[in-house]
Amino acid sequence: MNITETTLRDAFTIDPVIHGDERGNFYEGFNCKRILDATGYEFNVAQTNHSRSTKHILRGLHYQIENIQAKLVWATAGEIHDVIVDLRRSSPNFGQWQGFTLSADNRQRLLVPEGFAHGFLVLSETAEITYLTSDIYNPAAERLLRWNCPEIGIEWPIEAPTLNDRDASAPRFGDCETYP
Q: Which of these, 16, 152, 171, 178, could form a disulfide with 27 (CB 3.0-4.6 Å)?
C-alpha cells in the first residue's frame, strides 16, 4: 500500500497495491503495522461503521470531544466527496479543510486523525462507506460543524445538497468546540 501525507498535517491517503489476473484481484485494505511505520500513528480499531446514502446526500461535518476518534474511511460502492477540517488549535492547519474523491473504483482510503471534523457528499446514485474508528461512538460527545461555514470556505461540488435538520443547523466554526 502507498501511504501519502495530505496537505493537512497528520492526515494521510492510502492507496492499495492491487494484484490481479484473469481470476480477479486482491489487495490489502488495512494493515496497522504499515500505517504505524509510514505515519508514526498507531491506529487501533475500536469500532467499524457502514453507511449507505443516495445521490447528493451530505453527512457531516461530525466530530467528538470525548472518545475522540481517528477514522479510516473508504467507499465500498459508488463515489463520495470526502472532506476533513482540522480543529486542533495547536496545528498550523487549524481551521483548514481538504477534500478527496473516494470511490469503489479508486479504492483509496483516507486516514483522518483525531482532532478533525469529517463529512461526505454522495456523488453517485448511491454510495456505501465503511469506516474504522479508533474509539467508540459517544452520542453525548458528538459535535457538528456547519457544512457551508463561510469561515472555513469548503468548496463542495454542488451548492444545494440534501441534509438532515441537525446537520443543516450545525454551528459555524467560531461557535464550535475545538481541540487544544
A: 16
> Domain with 83 in it: what CATH number?
2.60.120.10
pLDDT band of 32, cuts 50, 70, 90: confident
Instruction: Let me know the angle formed at the C-alpha of 141 by 12 and 86, rounded to the nearest 5 degrees.
Output: 30
- Asked if 55 contacts 126 with a C-beta cutoff of 8 angstroms, the reply is yes
Question: Residue 59 corresponds to which amino acid?
Answer: R
Q: What is the dihedral of CA 16, 35, 4, 87, to 10 degrees?
A: 120
Full-model pTM: 0.94
Catalytic residue positions?
62, 131
Residue 84 β-bridge partners: 98, 118
Separation of CA 144 from chain center = 14
Long-range contacts of 169-175 (CB under 8 A, 24+ apart): 170/61, 170/144, 170/145, 170/146, 171/144, 171/145, 171/146, 172/145, 172/146, 173/95, 173/145, 173/146, 173/149
Which among 113, 49, 48 has a CA at the least distance from the CA of 84? 113
**Each residue of 81-132: pLDDT tens digit?**
999 999 999 999 999 999 999 999 999 999 999 999 999 999 999 999 999 9
165, 138 Cβ separation under 8 angstroms:
no
Instruction: For residue 130, give the C-alpha cell.
Output: 465503511
How many folded domains does the chain comprise? 1
